[in-house]
Each structure stands twice: as C-alpha cells, then as structure tokens.
Amino acid sequence: MKCWVWLCVAAGVCCASACARGARESDAPAQTTPVAPSQQPNARLIILGFDGVDPRWLSQWAAQGKLPTLARLMREHDGRGYHTLGSTNPPQSPVAWTSFATGTLPGEHGIFDFIARAHNRAATGSPITLKVATTSFEPQPAGQPVARNLRTGAPFWQLLGNQGIRVTALNVPYSFPPDPMRDGRMLSGLGVPDLRETNSTFTYAGSELRAEQLEQPPGGGVLTKIVRRGRVGRFVLEGPSIPDGAGERMQLPVEVRRAKRRKLRVQLMGVTHELPLNAWSEPIEVEFAHKELRVRGVLRLLPLEAGRRLRLFVSPISFHPRAPYAPISHPPEFSGQLADALGHVYKTVGWDHDTSALNAELIDEAAFLAELESIEHDRRAMLLSQLQRADFDLLIWVSTATDRAAHMFYRLTDPQHPRFDAALARRYGDVILHEYERMDHTVQAALAQLRPADTLLIVSDHGFHGYLRGLHVNQWLRQNGYLVLKHAAVSSRHELLVDVDWSKTRAYAAGTGQIYFNLRGREREGCVAPAEVKPLAEEIRRQLLALRDTERGDAVVVKNVYLASDVFRGRRSSDAPDLQIAFAPGYRTSWETVLGGIPGALFADNDKKWSGDHAASDAADTPGIVLSNRPVDKPDPHIVDVAPTAHALFHRSTPEYYAGKSLFTGDPR
Predict the structure, then answer these.
(1) Residue 594, exposed/middle/buried by CB under 10 A (0-12, 13-18, 19+)?
(2) Which helix (H) or strand (E) holds 259?
(3) What are the tens digits of pLDDT across the range 121-162?
(4) For the whole prediction, is pTM greater than 0.85?
(5) 558-563 sheet: strands from edge to edge
(6) Alpha-carbon distance 498 to 491, whole Å?
(7) How does DSSP classify residue 411?
(8) pLDDT (tens digit, 9 = 90+) per residue, 476-527?
(9) Distance CA 495, CA 632 (A)
(10) Strands 394-399 and 548-549
(11) Strands (DSSP E) along 269-361, which ranges?
C-alpha cells in the first residue's frame, strides 16, 4: 500500500520521440460487441478530455499558428465556443475528474486529494494513517481481487447509459472499477492498478546496486539486485500478492547476459529476448502462478547497460487486457476486443506514463518520451476506431499526456527552475508544445468523423504552474506552536507524522496542501475542542497569508487559505481537510509534507524533474479549458457543468443534486 500511496503523491504532488515498435495498422474499426440499439436523436455528443491543458499555453500557441485546428474552433461563433473552465478546489486530477463525472463538488463526492487520512482507533501507533483516496483494491484469499471506487455519486455516463443512451467511454480518469451500464461499454483509465496492486510500480534491476540502495527504493519503484555469476546475471521479478501469503508475492525468475552488438539478452518464462540498449521491447506477456491461481500480465523491458554492469528497467506490470486480474472494462470482454482491434496487447495500468522512473532518474528523457509516444499512439487508435462506429450516442475519451509532459518538462521552459538545464532545454524544451500539437491533430481527426448535428466538447480539468520551491508545512506548524514533537530535536524520519506529541498538537499536515486539526472526538488523541476550530482556522490562515520566503526576495508563498466550512459542503464534507492551502505560483507543499514528514528546514528547492504542478495551487488562477463546435452560453463555465450538459443534450432529466448547469442555454442543434 505504501508504494501505491507514494505513486499517488507523485501524481499530484510526484518533441515526442519515435516509437520503437514503428507504425502499425491499428486505426481500423474495432470488432467489439454491439450495444443494443435504441431510439435515439440524430445528434451525438463527443467529449474529448485532455488532462492539464493550460489556457495560457493554449492561447499563446494558437495565436502563433502552431495549433491550427484548435485556433479555428476558438475563433468560431465570435469566440463563444472557447472559455476557461473553472476547476475544483483543489485543482487536481482526482478531485476535478470526479466532479466532471458526478456533476458535484468535493464536499458531495468525497474526493479531496490523491491520498486521504485514516483514523487509527487502536490504543497504540499513530492515530493517523494514510490511504489512497480514490479506489480500494483488495486481493482476496481466492478468486479475483475486489475493487471499489470511493467516490459518492454515479457518473453521468452510467446514468445516461441506463436511460437508453448508448455510451462509449475510454480511459476516463478515476473510473475504476468500470461502471456497469445497460447500453454502454467502457475501458477504465487512471486508477487501474498494476499487478502489484499498486498505482504504478516499476522495477529497476542492476548488478551495481548496494545494500543501502536496496533499503531505500525511490518513490514509485522497486530496486532489485542482479546477482552475477560469470557472464550470467539473475534476479526475481515480483508480481501479485500471494493470497494469505503474509505479504509474499508471486515471482518470475529472470536471466540476463550480455549479447553482441550492444544488446542485452533477457530470458523470461523460457523465452529469450535479444534487445538493443536504450530501446523499449515490444509488449511482453507474462504469467504468475501460485497453486491453481494464474495471473496474466503485460510488461515492457528497457535494457540500460550490458557490460561490466548489467542494468534493466521493467515497466509496471499491467493487467492483461484479454484476461485482467480484475475487471477493467464493461462489458468484461471489451478490453480484450480493443486489443484485438489494435493487433497487440496494450498498457492498461491507469498511471500509464512512467513519471516516477524519470523523476528517480533511472530512465532518461528519450526513454520516457519513446514510451509516451507508444501509449498515445494506442490511445488515439482506440478513439478513432470507436468514432468510426455507428452504435454510440455519447463518446468520452481522455488523454493524460498533456498533463504528464507539463509535470516532467516544465523545468526546461523556465531558466529560474532549480533543475533547468540549458543543454536539455535545447533538445527537449518543446515537449509540452509537442503534446499540444498532438492534441490539435487528435481533434482534427475527430472532427473528420463528426456528423453535422454532432456536438463536440473539448475539456481540460485544470491548468498549470511551475513548482520551484516547497514549503515544509509541518515544520511551519511546529515553528508556530501548532505541532509539537516528543523530543526537542526535529524528527529524523520524514514521513507519517513520526514522533508527534498528539496530546499537545493542534494541527498537522498531510497531502497536497491540506491541514487537519487534532479534533477532540474525531482524532484518537484529539485536543482541539469544536468551539476552538473557527478561531484556530482564522489564526493559521492569517499567519500563512503573511508568510514570506526571505531567501527568494521576500516572495509571497501562500495566495489563499480556504476554510472547510466555506468551501466544502455536502454529504462527505466531514472527510474534508479543515484548511486547504492555495499556494502562489512557483510554490507547493514539499515532497516530504505530503506523507506527513517534518524536515528541519522551512523551505526546500524542488530538485526533482517533476517540475510543474497544480495540485495545491489556487483554483482561481488554475482553470482548465472548454472548447466546443457550438457556442457556449453559460457565463463562467465550470467542470461540474459537463454532466448536466450531457443530460440536457439528450433530453434526460438532470439530477437535482448536480452543482452545475448546462453549458448551452438552448438546444445547440
């Protein structure tokens, strides 16, 4: 679970290269199970989601003529088809995409961050632990694991799919497990775990690894030693948990040795793969076994060194689309039918781009972008294959590449960033632009498939900022007397609120920008009375707004601090943080703070390649975008408006609990 939590941290906190596999004939219509026909209006609704598209970049590059398709849409209808789109508070993917799905705000659907606080009621141990906020995925002693989406509220596509609207949904974030519908098919997106039951854990195997390195693996990855005997090296690749195995995992032995012409020979499951260095293998199908249980998966290999040292990178092991460990599509056979249409198996893990590996500097930019190219080729082929079908009324498709490129390559657009590298900037400084150009090409291809009466919505869930400096929020709370340690010295351990004196601590931080009070009756050792909450919140808010970074020219650190009572309302508001920090551009919660760490300093430069962010920014200056081939009439559109828009276009009643309104005041057709 700790690996999964860390990957969720990296997700919001933690020129495309040519694909090694080459061009494929994968744009043909998929031969998938037809959805039952129904009496439907002539017009369809196509929603294309692009995670993390920032309106400033979009407007700049459109004006420069670099995004011709998007620029044309932005000009149509006297510019009324293009608007910034209000995001959630906080403006981060799990929160915003859940609001997109449910038509409600966080206080109602209950997702406030990538990770969530859990209360330990036992007499010993920390009263606070952390868990993944969006999905529960639990292996069972026998049979398939049980997955559960932790949001409150049904997604709009499920509601419509049960009311006679024929739905196709592909890779929508935080839609795992898949939503069953009477008239619909879907492939789950971000949130689908890997075969280790984690968010997306890679494996790095190296003959050079030392014992101390093995004891401190990077966030989001596993390190394993290649034991070398002469010219042959061996290691064990770990997969799913063994049911009732006390944490043990199923294993596959792997043998590696140097081959001629700068290649690495890898033997896996009795098959030998001779692979050139620094080039991804084709997808490789594997099977883990324990007694009668057989679990199939898909991985890719990236040989890094074959000489005095042997080094091999193994991608996170995906569920096999034709035999997933747990359902990833509805109907269950749909994921396999998509593989049949593509002509190959594909990466099914929801966090599909290996940001953690690049952040840990175990793969380089070229390798990261080569895999990104491969993934996006498949995603686009899936979209086009479904658009060419005649058996849908509502189609939703989402790509996350625009977001991942901005997270990982922002540093090469800003000379002030601690990880700016002029040489790398000359080579990779346009990566973010290239993903926007890919978006433009995808929209162009989709437009060619539309009928005259169809409505197209292009949606982004939030914008972007640079992440140059991190605030150690728990250290700030300690310096100001709100958090107390058991010992005078700062805790030497930097996670999970170690050494906190809960009898004297009034506030603590965990997650990206959240502060919680040690509330009496809620936390096991709570010391803050309910009547003290409001004045305590106002006091902390006032001091955080006054905070300045004196090491950086007295810069403003915090733009706003939101009180839970002011912004989180609904059935799940009791799960909300008591304070939500909204950082000024350039700042964010430090990496250590997210897991409850308490380092000794107050600030830290962000020395990671994960260099752009938004997860703890202010929603007021981090909007996404909405772009349509129809004029958008609603003033100040918000991401919660998409769900009621879909209901209105199909003349279905809008649930009373929806927080938004239709983007179109009249019938846009």
Answers:
(1) buried
(2) strand 249-259
(3) 888 888 988 999 999 988 887 778 899 999 999 999 999 999
(4) yes
(5) 507-509, 514-517, 579-583, 558-563
(6) 7
(7) G
(8) 999 999 999 987 665 545 557 888 999 999 999 999 999 999 999 999 999 9
(9) 46
(10) unpaired
(11) 271-276, 284-290, 293-299, 301-306, 310-314, 318-319, 329-330
